[in-house]
UniProtKB/TrEMBL annotation:
Residues 4-116 form the SnoaL-like domain. This is Nuclear transport factor 2 family protein. Transmembrane segments: none annotated. SUPFAM superfamilies: NTF2-like. Pfam families: SnoaL_3. Coiled coil: none annotated. InterPro entries: NTF2-like_dom_sf, SnoaL-like.
């Protein structure tokens, strides 16, 4: 599920993404570029178009670092190793560290939370302090 959904999203295909990964009504997202936690998952024509225009494909390999599963909850700590085209930027590494939390709902696993960051490659205290102060922005 994690591999297929990451491949679909990175290819800009929200229909395939939603076909393998179902979101809970109370889904929350902590996106990799920071900012406040977002609530809900919108799958409308505008979201499809924006995702298709932004994520233009590449290679995806999901590595599961850890998993914790009970009858009702599952948490995956993964690295999404991704290389490809995003926006108008040249092809590059877009790997993310990701935590996925799922809840069983009527026999189906639903994603309740996703937290992603781009800190796959180690940074130093100076860079971390700049990030924490909000000094590394576009």
């Amino acid at each position: 599920m994690a591999q297929e959904s990451a491949e679909a999203y990175f290819a800009g295909d929200l229909d395939a993404y939603e076909g393998v990964l179902h979101h809970a009504d109370d889904f929350t997202l902590m996106p990799p570029f920071g900012g406040p936690t977002r609530s809900g998952f919108v799958l409308d024509d505008e979201a499809r178009q924006a995702t298709r225009a932004t994520f233009r494909g590449g290679e995806v390999e999901v590595e599961v670092d850890a998993s914790y599963v009970t009858d009702e909850l599952a948490v995956l700590a993964v690295v999404e190793r991704q290389r490809g085209l995003v926006g108008e930027l040249p092809e590059q590494d877009w790997s993310l560290r990701v935590t996925l939390a799922f809840r069983r709902d009527g026999g189906q696993w639903r994603l309740v939370h996703r937290h992603a960051d781009a800190l796959v490659h180690t940074i130093g205290w100076s860079t971390l302090s700049q990030l924490a102060r909000g000094e590394l922005t576009d």
